[in-house]
Amino acid sequence: MAKTSATTILWFRQDLRLHDQAALLAAAAEGGPVLPVFVLDDGAESWAPGGASRWWLHFSLISLAAGLRTLGAELVLRRGHAAEIIPSLAVETGAATVHAGVAHEPFWRARDRDVAAALGEAGARLVLHRVATLIDPEAIRTRTGTIYGMYTPFARAVEEAGEPADPRPAPRALKPAAPVASDRLEDWGLLPNRPDWAEGLRATWVPGEAAAMTRLSAFLDRAVAAYGTGRNLPGEDGTSMLSPYLHFGEISPQTVWHACRARGGGPDRQSFLRELIWRDFSAYLLWHHPSLPAAPLRPAFENLAWRQDKAALRAWQQGRTGVPIIDAGMRQLWQTGWMHNRVRMIAASFLVKHLLLSWQEGEAWFWDTLVDADLASNAASWQWVAGTGIDAQPFFRVFNPVTQGEKFDADGAYVRRFVPEIAALPDRYLHAPWTAPPLVLAQAGLRLGRDYPEPLIDLAAGRARALEVYRQTVKEAAE
Fold this sequence. Notes:
Radius of gyration: 24 Å
Order of helices and strands: EHEHEHEHEHHHHHHHHHHHHHHHHH
Oligomer: single chain
Distance between the termini: 61 Å
CATH architecture of the largest domain: Orthogonal Bundle
CATH topology of the largest domain: DNA Cyclobutane Dipyrimidine Photolyase, subunit A, domain 3
Strand content: 5-15%
Largest sheet: 5 strands, parallel
Number of strands: 5
C-alpha cells in the first residue's frame, strides 16, 4: 500500500481494543495521521444498546481513549446518525479512507451501506475488516455451497479450515490528526442516575482491554483444565466470564483461542474452544438470517399460541417465580449484568415452556440487562431454547428446574447466595421449598407466600400445557 499524508479515519464500533485490531493496523499502515472516532448511533430502534450495555460502554470508551492516547491519538466522540457523521468527518478532515470492523447486526450492515454510499459521493471509501469473529461468515459453506444449518458440521468445517491467524500486536504509535470537535462522554448519559442500579455491576466487572487480558489469564490459570465439568456448576467459578469483553471487542477471539492453545490440549480446553466456535455460529446465523432476533427460523412456530401474562413476566424478571434456581439466575442477572450459562438455559426454558411466554419477551429483557448483550448470541440462544431456530433444542424437551438445580447446584451454594431468604432450608428441600413439611419450613423461619413466593405454576401442569400447545402447533402447520 502506498503511504499517504492524508488523514485516515478509524471508526470504532464493537472492536474497542488496540491489540489484534485489523482496522487499527490498516489505518496505521496508510502512513498518514489517524483520527479515531466512535459514534453513538441510537437509531437502531428496538436494538439500541440496553441499560447494562450502556454502562459497560461508558467505561470501555474511557479505557480505549486512554490506550489511544499512549499511541499519540485522541478518540473523537460523536452522537447521531453514523451515515451523516462519518462522511461529514471525512469531508472536514480531507480523509480518503475510513477503516472499520465488519459488523454482523442488520442495522449496522444497513448503516455500512449508507456510509459507503455517502463516502463515495465525497470521493472517499469505506474499508471493512474482520475484527469480531474467527471466520468470515461468507467463507464457510457446505460442499454444495449452501449455508450450514447445524452447529456440529459448521464447527467441523471451521476446525478443518485450520488454526485462526496469530494475533497481531498494536502499532507502536499513531500519527495524530488535526483536532476536531468531540462530544464529552459524560454528556451522553450512559450511566444510571436515579436510581443507581449499577452497584453490583461495579462490584463484578472492570471493563476495558487490560481487564480482558487479566480475566483471560485468570481463567486459564484457574479453571480451563476442568472446564468440561466446571462450566455447568453455577456455584463455582468455572467459566471464563469473557463474553462481555468479546462482545465489545476488548479482546479478539483469536487472542483467546491461541492463549488457550498455548496451555496444551485435552477435552476440557477443546470444550472451551468449541464455545468460541458457537459464538461464531451465532454471528453466522445472524449474517445469513437477518430476521433471527425477531422471527422464528422454523416457520411452523410463527403461529404458536404464546400467552400474554404481564404479572408472570414481571415475576420472572424480578426473580420471584417461587422456583429457586430460576430466581437465583434472574437475581444474579439484575445484580451483576450476567447470568451463568447453564442457568440461562434453565431460566429461558421456564419462561417459554412452563409459562408459555414468548422467547422474544425473554430476549428483550436479556438485551436490556446483560452486559454481554450480543444480538447474535442472544437471539440464537433464545431460539435454541425455544425450539424455534435452526439446530434448536426440540420444543418438547422441557428442562425440569428442580432436577437441574439438584444436579448442578447440589450443595445449594448458588441458590443460597442469590435467594438468601430460603438459605436455612436443608439441601433436600432447597430447590423445591413447596415440598418441605411445615415443621421444616418453620425451623427455617420460612413461610411460603410471605417470605418467598409459592411457585407461579405447577411444573407438571406447565409442562403438559406446553406439550399440548406444541402438538396443536405442529398439527396446524401440517394441515
